[in-house]
Amino acid sequence: TARTHGWTGTRILTVANQKGGVGKTTSTVNIAAAMAEAGLRVLVVDMDPQGNASTALSIPHQSGTTGIYDVLIDGVPLEEVVRESPHVPGLLGAPATIDLAGAEIELVPLVAREHRLRRALDVYLSSRAEGDEIDLVLIDCPPSLGLLTVNAFVAAREVLIPIQCEYYALEGLSQLLKNVELIQQHLNAELEVSTILLTMYDARTRLSADVAAQVREYFGPRVLRAAIPRSVRISEAPSHGETVITYDPTSTGALSYVEAAAEMRQLQEVSA
Ligand code: ADP
Ligand code: MG
User: Which residue ranges does UniProt annotate as crossing the membrane (predicted)?
Assistant: First the structure.
């Protein structure tokens, strides 16, 4: 089969920003869907108790469903909770139920509390049959820097930060970068902020352009050239249990995520 990406093994990215509403979940599921449509086998791990990524992928996550909570707290194998999204072949998801809200506290006294997702993922990834390996894992984080996000940072190699092109967008970013640094020093030396994605970009406003320019100046080539526009189709898709990639494939929102995903595949080819 034709190679559609430039790396070997599994690439693992955590999508993080402790601010809510910046497009973490939207970017996670749409990049995942775009990658799966490009032929990659993709796993989305939903680490947010709200379960919005699970909803967008039509993966059941009502209370009582076995999900990431059971993986982290009770050591249930990830394999037992992973489901395929009905709309996109090759797109898998591990659901989050509302129980996960309690995990922030319940993890505290547990052995290896920061490494529980990593261990579960290691077992899952290495047990995949030959030819059936996962190419990409995207972990959707809650809007906090607690133990759930720490687990995501420890499990990943890369951090993708979505930045909303709005006033105050850069506020809190230094705290996020500082936390990544602490994780590098103490828990996961390999972690790097590899990708920045501008979201809710409005080409008509000076503010969006200003924020984008500042972010590009600070982060340089790590900022994807594709910026995600503000789009009603993007925000409508989850209520249909879909990503915009299948809900309205020719919309500007869908095309921008397809472009972002294509860039993420290329970037790796260059640096590999
Ligand atoms: P987070 O996961 O960071 O909290 P979400 O991805 O859930 O953020 O996005 C917050 C809200 O903004 C959601 O209602 C989502 O549908 C909407 N949204 C996200 N990206 C866009 C966009 N590009 N255009 C319009 N609405 C968007
Ligand atoms: Mg979210």
Answer: none
